[in-house]
Specification:
Strand order of the largest sheet: 2-1-3-4
Strand content: 5-15%
Structural class: alpha+beta
CATH class of the largest domain: Mainly Alpha
CATH topology of the largest domain: Glutathione S-transferase Yfyf (Class Pi), Chain A, domain 2
Radius of gyration: 17 Å
Largest sheet: 4 strands, mixed
Shape: globular
CATH architecture of the largest domain: Up-down Bundle
Number of domains: 2
Oligomer: single chain
Bound molecules: glutathione
């Protein structure tokens, strides 16, 4: 049985595991509540960040790499486009851009908003990170103007990567999605596997519900 350590970007992994029908258990990691004391987790990832997985003798980190590993090791699976597919390059590009160009830069803004002293919250670097996010989002928008999913007419693992990043940006209040992205997120998150992943990730589910309630009341 695969063990997934931590929610956060671990949600991408849980969603993929649900899509693939692979058995797993989620081992919670409390990043804000002293993971420096969590010796069992630090034995898995000495750097202390999430997500990580253990699958038999394999231990690894980095959500996109974990997704590629699962799709290859437990595949082939239709959610990963094959190299011979005409959309393979687009698939590969957006699978990685979801983290490298979208969620990664948002991390810098979130850390600034939560951790920086009040006087340092508005700063050049956080603005720069937002600019990076927005420029990559422009490529996502161009692509979604051409096709319902990021690599064409069907849902792939790249949509998990991109959807996670867009929800992350929206829920952290770093960015307000426009209608085309909202419609895309509504499409991808309507999948049954997304709902099952939310059910197995209680912190993510509670966060999503809290943000949705705040948006309804306009707070
Ligand atoms: N590129 C990494 C990013 C991992 C990451 O930033 N994880 C966050 C939570 S979602 C975290 O553990 N932050 C604390 C830290 O990096 O020390 C991935 O995609 O897995």
């Amino acid at each position: 049985m695969i063990t997934l350590y931590g929610e956060g970007r671990g949600f991408r992994v849980a969603w993929l595991l649900e899509e693939m029908g692979l058995a797993y258990r989620l081992r919670q990691v409390d990043l804000l509540g002293g993971q420096e004391l969590d010796a069992e987790f630090l034995a898995v990832n000495p750097a202390g960040f999430i997500p990580a997985i253990q699958d038999g003798g394999v231990t690894m980190v980095e959500s996109i790499a974990i997704m590629e590993y699962l799709l290859a090791r437990h595949g082939p699976h239709p959610l990963a486009l094959a190299p011979g597919d005409t959309a393979f390059a687009t698939y590969q590009q957006f699978l990685h851009m979801g983290e490298a160009g979208l969620a990664g830069p948002i991390n810098a803004i979130v850390a600034t908003n939560i951790l920086a002293p009040e006087a340092e919250r508005k700063n050049w670097t956080a603005n720069w990170a937002l600019g990076i996010f927005e420029s990559r989002l422009g490529l996502v928008r161009r692509q979604l103007a051409r096709s319902p999913y990021i690599a064409g007419d069907r849902f792939t693992a790249a949509d998990i990567s991109i959807t996670y990043a867009l929800e992350f940006a929206q829920r952290t209040g770093c960015f307000t999605l426009a209608d085309p992205e909202k419609a895309y997120v509504a499409r991808t998150t309507a999948r049954e596997a997304y709902g099952r992943a939310l059910d197995s990730c209680p912190a993510t589910k509670a966060w999503a519900a809290e943000v949705a309630a705040r948006q309804l009341t306009g707070d």
